[in-house]
Amino acid sequence: MFIKDIQKILDAQLLVGEEFMDTEVRSACGSDMMSDVLAFVKDQAVLITGLLNQQAIRTAAMMDMVCVVFVRGKTPGEDILEAARDNGIAVMTTTHRMFTACGLLFEAGLNGGCHIK
């Protein structure tokens, strides 16, 4: 699956990263707790979160994630978008709740791909 597919499936608005739309995404992680993301996530993943601060972008960058989707219609401020630009991470927002967003992506064939270390 590609970032452009995620945008379509989630009916999401792309905020940063038009140049990354053809980047492959291999797995997804939905969490508001970045410590869980650090424990479970693999690279080439999309982070689905409602945590609207730079920690979400920093965590995604540390884990070599390629995209962050903010749920529940949350729109990040310019500081968060700038951090995403600096780290080469696409950012989107969707009106779906986290559970629904994860379910839609799973139904479309994207798995969690994460196991407890």
Q: How is the secondary structure organized here?
A:
Elements: H1 3-9, E1 13-16, E2 27-30, H2 34-40, E3 45-49, H3 54-62, E4 67-70, H4 78-87, E5 90-93, H5 98-107
Parallel strand pairs: 2-3, 3-4, 4-5
Antiparallel strand pairs: 1-5
Description:
With 117 residues, this protein is an alpha/beta fold. The chain has a single domain (3-107), classed as 3-Layer(aba) Sandwich (Udp-n-acetylmuramoylalanyl-d-glutamate--2,6- Diaminopimelate Ligase, Chain: A, domain 1). It has helices spanning 3-9, 34-40, 54-62, 78-87, 98-107, and strands spanning 13-16, 27-30, 45-49, 67-70, 90-93. The chain is globular, with a radius of gyration of 12 Å.
CA radius of gyration is: 12 Å
At the fourth level of CATH, the homologous superfamily is HprK N-terminal domain-like
Overall body shape: globular
Helical content, roughly?
25-40%
